[in-house]
């Protein structure tokens, strides 16, 4: 399952970020997509981003996100609007980053990217940006608490991803991405993105 983001910059070639591949595209990656979308909306820079998610498999194509994930997002006041789809060849040619949920997704996508000429995507684990060093975002097979765990991980990772943009992608880590609001301000003041200890 994956989630993709495309940054649009005036007078520069379009920057594309493919984020959060997952096996089915109904649990983890739609949550990551929704979290990232809320971040850029709250920063009033949503017109600079193209955000999506997709699957590495065909299991869930055409299905909406898991109802428990939808309930988790509603609890945090975040809209979720997605229909599962599979990763395409064009994704590897369009997006700068593909950020995966787990090592199985990572292996699958790196294998597929090796078959595509001029692949431009940098393929990584989304969890590599987690300040708590939880590398894998586990599939929430259990109850609502597992979806909450995925949500909290996605918030940490998406925040860190934005904060650690390379200079070529953002001349200022904060202001270029978030306009007049810094990421620190956004996460400290927005109740949707307060991280809770377990």
TrEMBL record:
| EC numbers on record | 3.1.3.2, 3.1.3.48
Where does the source fall among the domains of life? Eukaryota
Q: Recorded GO terms, molecular function?
A: acid phosphatase activity; non-membrane spanning protein tyrosine phosphatase activity
Q: Name one GO cellular component term.
A: cytoplasm
Q: Where in the cell is it found?
A: Cytoplasm
Primary localization class, coarse: cytoplasm
Q: Which positions fall inside the Phosphotyrosine protein phosphatase I domain?
A: 23-164
List the active site.
Answer: 28, 139
Q: Which reaction does it catalyse?
A: O-phospho-L-tyrosyl-[protein] + H2O = L-tyrosyl-[protein] + phosphate; a phosphate monoester + H2O = an alcohol + phosphate
Sorted keywords for this record are: Cytoplasm, Hydrolase, Protein phosphatase
Q: What family is it from?
A: Belongs to the low molecular weight phosphotyrosine protein phosphatase family.
PANTHER family, per database record: LOW MOLECULAR WEIGHT PHOSPHOTYROSINE PROTEIN PHOSPHATASE (PTHR11717:SF7), LOW MOLECULAR WEIGHT PROTEIN TYROSINE PHOSPHATASE (PTHR11717)
Task: Describe its function.
Answer: Acts on tyrosine phosphorylated proteins, low-MW aryl phosphates and natural and synthetic acyl phosphates.
Return the protein name.
Answer: Low molecular weight phosphotyrosine protein phosphatase
């Amino acid at each position: 399952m994956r989630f993709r983001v495309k940054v649009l910059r005036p007078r520069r070639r379009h920057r594309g970020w493919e984020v959060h591949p997952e096996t089915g595209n109904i649990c983890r990656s739609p949550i990551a997509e929704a979290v990232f979308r809320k971040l850029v909306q709250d920063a009033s820079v949503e017109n600079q981003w193209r955000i999506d998610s997709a699957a590495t498999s065909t299991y869930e194509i055409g299905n909406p996100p898991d109802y428990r994930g939808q309930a988790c997002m509603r609890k945090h006041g975040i809209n979720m609007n997605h229909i599962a789809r599979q990763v395409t060849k064009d994704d590897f040619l369009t997006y700068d980053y593909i950020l995966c949920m787990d090592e199985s997704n990572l292996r699958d996508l790196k294998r597929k990217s090796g078959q595509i000429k001029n692949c431009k995507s940098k393929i990584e684990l989304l969890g590599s940006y987690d300040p708590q060093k939880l590398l894998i975002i586990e599939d929430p097979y259990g109850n609502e608490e597992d979806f909450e765990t995925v949500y909290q991980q996605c918030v940490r990772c998406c925040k860190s991803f934005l904060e650690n943009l390379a200079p070529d992608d953002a001349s200022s880590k904060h202001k270029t991405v978030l306009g007049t609001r810094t990421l620190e301000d956004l996460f400290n003041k927005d109740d949707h993105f307060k991280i809770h200890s377990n």
